[in-house]
């Protein structure tokens, strides 16, 4: 297993002070910035695009930016996000007509690529492309909003994904997104995740340092 990564989702940050907020969670010990892109088409909400990613880079954010595309179509946004400073780009397989092509497109732009699985989306989308993904992201809520409750069936799915990854022998990250808190992060890790997105649990906490430290303590036990 690779070292655990904590990725605060900026969906729950104060957008009016986004640069400061991202700097603050990184100072508090976060590893990766999780950047949720919603288009009011693939998901019923609307957020931010490549210009905001570029603005974070211009502000001086050098940590990896993990762009989670909840958009349809996918491909036209890939070069724009790569140019805007994305490090990783993940997309939902249902939103791309040509999944293999989209994965190659992301990698050809120098970013790590991954597929995102909604709670009811089967892992079989990985069958013929496992060697082309750098990360597998399991949604533990239905995408579109922060602050939802973790769906327990995801634990079993995480174990299945962990088995697939281990059997492949490839260094693929297993990321979990939705409803992650200090209270459930240990069992989520036990089920096989090694990268943890947390939005409301971090940004709604009064002290980012304290909550990230508590998460790491849970992961160390
Ligand atoms: C939901 C997003 C998540 C969300 C997580 O569609 O993909 O990244 O911000 O928020 P929490 O941690 O509050 O569930
Ligand atoms: Zn996300």
From TrEMBL:
UniProt-listed Enzyme Commission number(s): 5.1.3.1
Residues the entry annotates as binding substrate: 9, 68, 144-147, 177-179, 199-200
Taxonomy, superkingdom: Bacteria
Catalysed transformations (reactions): D-ribulose 5-phosphate = D-xylulose 5-phosphate
One record GO biological process: pentose catabolic process
Active site: 36 (proton acceptor), 177 (proton donor)
GO cellular component: cytoplasm
MF annotations from Gene Ontology: D-ribulose-phosphate 3-epimerase activity; metal ion binding
PROSITE patterns (UniProt xref): RIBUL_P_3_EPIMER_1 (PS01085), RIBUL_P_3_EPIMER_2 (PS01086)
Pathway field: Carbohydrate degradation
Keyword Metal-binding on entry: yes
InterPro entries tied to this protein: Aldolase_TIM, Ribul_P_3_epim, Ribul_P_3_epim-like, RibuloseP-bd_barrel
Cofactor(s) the protein needs: Fe(2+); Co(2+); Mn(2+); Zn(2+)
Bound cofactor: record note: Binds 1 divalent metal cation per subunit.
Alphabetic keyword roster: Carbohydrate metabolism, Cobalt, Isomerase, Manganese, Metal-binding, Zinc
Residues annotated for a divalent metal cation binding in this entry: 34, 36, 68, 177
EC class name: isomerase
HAMAP family: RPE
Family note: Belongs to the ribulose-phosphate 3-epimerase family.
Job of this protein: Catalyzes the reversible epimerization of D-ribulose 5-phosphate to D-xylulose 5-phosphate.
Name this polypeptide is given: Ribulose-phosphate 3-epimerase
Organism of derivation: Rheinheimera nanhaiensis E407-8
Gene name linked to the record: rpe
């Amino acid at each position: 297993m690779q070292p655990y990564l904590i990725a605060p989702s900026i969906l729950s940050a104060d957008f009016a002070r986004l640069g400061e907020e991202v700097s603050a969670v990184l100072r508090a010990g976060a590893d990766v910035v999780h950047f949720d892109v919603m288009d009011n088409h693939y998901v019923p909400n609307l957020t931010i695009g490549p210009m905001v990613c570029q603005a974070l880079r211009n502000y001086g954010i050098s940590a990896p930016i993990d762009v989670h595309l909840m958009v349809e179509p996918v491909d036209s946004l890939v070069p724009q996000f790569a140019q805007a400073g994305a490090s990783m780009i993940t997309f939902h397989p249902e939103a791309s007509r040509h999944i293999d092509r989209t994965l190659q497109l992301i990698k050809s732009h120098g970013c790590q690529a991954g597929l995102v699985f909604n709670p009811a989306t089967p892992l079989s989308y990985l069958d013929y492309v496992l060697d082309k993904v750098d990360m597998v992201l399991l949604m533990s809520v239905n995408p579109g909003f922060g602050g939802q409750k973790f769906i327990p069936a995801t634990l079993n799915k995480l174990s299945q994904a962990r088995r697939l990854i281990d059997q492949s022998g490839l260094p693929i990250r297993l990321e979990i997104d939705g409803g992650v808190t200090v209270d459930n992060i240990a069992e989520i890790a036990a089920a096989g995740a090694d990268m943890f997105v947390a939005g409301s649990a971090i940004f709604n906490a009064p002290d980012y340092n304290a909550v990230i430290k508590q998460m790491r303590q849970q992961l160390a036990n």
